[in-house]
């Protein structure tokens, strides 16, 4: 997803999207913490003439539907309500992003390394990680990092690629399966050994191959989706030239999930609800792709819930103060 984010932060719908890996009270606590970090706002644009017009027209056109503002990760600036500050890494970290928090007793605690690639993890037969193999792309050098915990959050494609190159497909047999995308309901991505042994990208990582189909239920849902979208849009006016209704290419939503999904057993998942990889010591995975269920809403807030649960577990196991 890179630096692109619309800052939409809805909660997943219970019974349609949300998994049962956490109880209702656990989900509510995790969502509340994530919303606080993201500065979730339900009324940032309620004073907008355009927003009020759209809500009025749609409320009158669809009295049987509830019209709500999209929750957004942002806040309006005190003293200048015209200025909207959108949430990002800097707003989430706050004062923790200042250099004084990078050190403790002369020891550096936090480091961001640009032009750096994690090539793979060196893992033995017992599932112990000895080190991460790191490439310094700027100086064309390789070095190793040893850690108490290894957290990989490289997205739907690169994370499975790193783990596959680390030789973990045997310990994580469901790696790369259960891919979900919008508007797709469910499909499967397989990392074909024969193909991956031949092809590699410019950084030497396995070339991903996507094999998936839409089942009849998903195709019917897509038809209802675009029909409903056109019906709603016509209530508001005509279509901009070049922006007529159409299906976008798969992947356009940038909401690929499930390629290393969370679950209760290695038989149908890659990690547990705290992001711990099955059969691999001290490896934690994060990102939208731990979300195990079909997902229609923006997944960022739910991914943050899983990340908070993982962080809590890491802190507990390392016996450190938060």
Automatic annotation (TrEMBL):
Family annotation (InterPro entries): FAD/NAD-bd_sf (IPR036188), GMC_OxRdtase_N (IPR000172), GMC_OxRtase_C (IPR007867), P2Ox-like (IPR051473)
Organism listed in the record: Gibberella moniliformis (strain M3125 / FGSC 7600) (Maize ear and stalk rot fungus)
Cofactor(s) named in the record: FAD
Residue span, Glucose-methanol-choline oxidoreductase C-terminal domain: 200-307
SUPFAM superfamilies membership: FAD/NAD(P)-binding domain
KW Flavoprotein (keyword) present: yes
Gene3D superfamilies registered for this protein in UniProt: FAD/NAD(P)-binding domain (3.50.50.60)
Protein name: Glucose-methanol-choline oxidoreductase C-terminal domain-containing protein
UniProt-recorded Gene Ontology molecular function terms: flavin adenine dinucleotide binding; oxidoreductase activity, acting on CH-OH group of donors
Keywords from the named record: FAD, Flavoprotein, Oxidoreductase
């Amino acid at each position: 997803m890179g630096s692109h984010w619309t800052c939409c932060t809805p909660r997943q719908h219970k019974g349609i999207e949300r998994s049962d890996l956490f109880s209702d009270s656990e989900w509510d606590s995790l969502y509340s913490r994530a919303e606080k970090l993201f500065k979730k706002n339900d009324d940032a644009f309620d004073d907008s003439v355009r927003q009020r017009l759209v809500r009025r027209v749609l409320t009158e056109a669809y009295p049987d539907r509830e019209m709500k503002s999209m929750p957004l990760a942002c806040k309006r600036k005190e003293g200048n309500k015209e200025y909207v500050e959108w949430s990002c890494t800097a707003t989430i970290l706050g004062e923790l992003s200042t250099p004084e928090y990078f050190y403790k007793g002369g020891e550096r605690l936090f480091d961001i390394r640009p032009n750096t690639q994690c090539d793979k993890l060196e893992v033995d037969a017992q599932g112990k990680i000895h080190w991460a193999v790191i490439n310094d792309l700027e100086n064309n050098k390789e070095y190793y990092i040893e850690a108490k915990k290894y957290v990989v959050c490289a997205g739907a494609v690169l994370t499975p690629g790193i783990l596959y190159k680390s030789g973990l497909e045997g310990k994580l047999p469901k790696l790369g399966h259960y891919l979900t995308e919008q508007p797709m309901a469910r499909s499967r991505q397989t990392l074909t050994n024969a193909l991956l042994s031949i092809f590699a990208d410019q950084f030497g990582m396995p070339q991903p191959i996507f094999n998936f189909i839409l089942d009849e239920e998903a195709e019917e849902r897509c038809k209802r989706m675009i029909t409903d979208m056109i019906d709603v849009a016509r209530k508001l006016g005509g279509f901009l030239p070049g922006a007529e209704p159409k299906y976008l290419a798969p992947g356009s939503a940038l909401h690929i999930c499930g390629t290393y999904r969370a679950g209760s057993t290695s038989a149908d998942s890659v990690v547990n609800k705290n992001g711990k990889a099955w059969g691999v010591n001290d490896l934690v995975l994060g990102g939208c792709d731990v979300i195990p269920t079909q997902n229609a809403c923006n997944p960022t807030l739910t991914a943050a819930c899983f990340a908070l649960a993982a962080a809590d577990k890491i802190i507990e196991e390392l016996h450190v103060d938060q």
